[in-house]
Amino acid sequence: MTQSLTDWLQQSRLIVVEVDQAAGRLRVRAADDSCSDLSCRAQTAVVTDEDANGDLGTLNPGDIIKVEPSADRPEKIVVVRRAWEEWASPEI
What we know:
92 residues; alpha+beta; CATH 2.40.50; 6-stranded mixed β-sheet; 15% helix
């Protein structure tokens, strides 16, 4: 069965559960409620509406992200929706 675009978008997004900037780690939750830890490089870029070259400190628990991986660690993390925007959404 072919996956629809909407299903693919939902499956490719992750929710930030915890940020450990000092250790360079993110704990994220996938659409199936499984959690995993991502080890990030010092050069990992976090892209938000406010900043194209942020770091892990710009992430907050509840943020919805997508990850652009390289060979072994995330190269770029894109914030799709901030946690506070999720609560303000008319969809809720």
